[in-house]
Amino acid sequence: MAIVIEMPKLSDTMEEGVIAKWNVKEGDKVEPGDVIAEVETDKATMDLEAFDGGTVLKILAQEGDTVPLGEKLMVLGDKGEDVSDLVGANGSDKKKAETDTDEKADEGKSGKADKGSKKYQDASGNQGKKDTVESAASNDGKDANGRVKASPLARKMAEERGIDLSRVKGSGPKGRVIKADVEQHKEGAPADKPIAGSPVAKQDFAGVREDEDVKVSQMRKSIGKRLAESKFTSPHFYETIDIDMKQAVEARTALNEISDIKISFNDLVLKACSVALKRHPWVNASWLGDVIRLHGDVNVAVAVAVDDGLLTPVLRHADQKGLREISVETKELAGKARDKKLQPEDWEGSTFTISNLGMFGIEEFTAIINPSNVSILAVGAIRDVPVVEEGQIVPGKRMKVTLSSDHRVVDGAKAAEFLNTVRQLLENPASMLL
Fold first, then answer.
1. Residues contacting 76, CB < 8 A, separation 6+
2. Which residues lie below 8 Å from residue 55, measured CB to CB, with a gap of 6+?
3. What is the DSSP letter of 188?
4. Is 411 a catalytic residue?
5. pLDDT digits (tens, 9 = 90+) for 145-169
6. Would you call 185 a catalytic residue per the annotation?
7. Which of 47, 65, 192, 411 is catalytic?
8. Beta strands 300-302 and 352-356: pairing type?
9. Could you give the CA distance from residue 336 to residue 45 in angstroms, rounded to a whole number?
């Protein structure tokens, strides 16, 4: 009996997936547990396993296709089994249907003059002459009046995008421009047969870069949706504090001289925050509508930049770990994030987030809260600045951090108390080890 494999939910926020790669082809034998495909979700590229065995009778989604949850991906069954009732329209059928729809719509708009053009006969009975004109015009994708043949939808899309239809190669019947031709056209590319005297023809200037439309990845879609929800549903407010990092710099240098694992400034910040979160549970919380949950565990997410956007792998029980453990685990999670190897347990369950742009020279910024946290710390660069100590101007090292908080949970005083604890810990690094 044939079995339909549908797009499963591979992450907690996934609404659709992209087929990154098929590991099987039609006619292959599949066993339960085989990885049949790689699916790009909003978080990472995940393996899709088969739960049943059989022969691949039909693949319904191609590599690169975006497939909503629950949509059909593949049909498994016995070799030779008829699955036509399960398959439905394939991609070519859909394109043909689109072309047919465009054609019918265009005929409806053209009126009686185009209807039955091959049998058309003018008042003088010059049918042959009309056919000759029609035939000649059809070869270059224009009608008898020199107007580019295009479906109404294609014409509307071209107008909205500022595309000259005379420069678009039509793939429809008789060279007609259809929707797909406009979507695939790159403005600035020469048409196969330039039309002389076109009123909108323009000279191409060397060195001018063309516009590029980049397909929105699943990760970027999720980032946009979740951060927009956070920004416009959580009342953000911001507090910034300037921290003396002189002792932290000296402590890091001393630690790295004796440690086989290099400690970063971000590791020091993460350790200071994890200690401070235990002392200030209202910052280590979640807004759940009817209740505010003060988390018992301290699970700190670290923002990692990847090609498609931003991932936030989670360091669990960070308050219970030493600097060496924090450094090793953070580097491992960051590597998995960049390689798209994170699993759901690597990104779920954070209670607080740190975003550090100091390595890019950014001195100060604000960050959007990562749902379902109520705070995120934005960490800037360490600056060499003159400071006053005991009435004397001396070289100093300073770092600004900004806490974004959800005002439904965190009040201004609570945020300030948390920031002061972080500052005290970083200005006296030895206190973090007590």
1. 2, 3, 5, 30, 50, 52, 53, 54, 55, 56, 57
2. 27, 28, 29, 30, 76, 77, 78, 79
3. T
4. yes
5. 567 777 767 777 787 777 887 878 7
6. no
7. 411
8. parallel
9. 11
The three-class DSSP label of residue 31 is coil
312's CB contacts (< 8 A; 6+ apart) are 301, 302, 303, 304, 347, 350, 353, 370
Tokens standing for residue 135? 């035939």
Dist. CA 367–CA 356, nearest whole Å = 10
At a CB cut-off of 8 Å and minimum separation 6, what does 239 contact?
A: 402, 403, 405, 412, 415, 416, 419
The structure tokens listed for 304 are 């990692």
Rounded to an integer, what distance in angstroms lies between the CA atom of residue 26 and that of residue 36?
11
pLDDT of residue 108: 47
Q: Which residues of 105-142 are buried (b: 16+ CB within 10 A; e: fewer)?
A: ebeeeeeeeeeeeeeeeeeeeeeeebeeebeebbebbb
Kindly state the tokens that stand for 93: 């059928």
Two tokens, residue 343: 């699993």
For position 432, what pLDDT does the model report?
Answer: 86
Structure token pair of residue 180: 């797909």
CB atoms under 10 Å from CB of 55, counted, come to 18
Whole-model pTM: value is: 0.60
Three-state DSSP class for residue 143: coil
**Lookup: tokens for 321:** 């770990």
Q: How many CB atoms lie within 10 A of CB 300?
A: 28
Comparing CA positions, the residue from 151, 147, 146, 216 lying closest to residue 182 is 151
- Rounded Cα distance, 301 and 315, in Å: 6
Q: CA-to-CA distance for 434 and 427, rounded, in angstroms?
A: 14
Bridge-based pairing of strands 304-306 and 309-311 is antiparallel
Which candidate in 78, 192, 339, 407 is catalytic?
Answer: 407
178 vs 172: CA distance, rounded Å: 6
Answer whether 347's CB lies under 8 Å from 315's CB. Answer: no
Please state, in angstroms and as integers, the Cα–Cα distance from residue 284 to each residue in 131, 239, 327, following that order: 79, 16, 21
Q: Strands, DSSP E only, in 220-345?
A: 236-244, 285-287, 292-294, 300-302, 304-306, 309-311, 314-315
Q: Are 297 and 376 in contact (CB under 8 A)?
A: no
Q: What is the pLDDT of residue 330?
A: 95
Q: Whole-angstrom Cα distance, residue 217 to residue 391?
A: 56
Over its C-alpha atoms, the chain yields an Rg (Å, rounded) of: 31
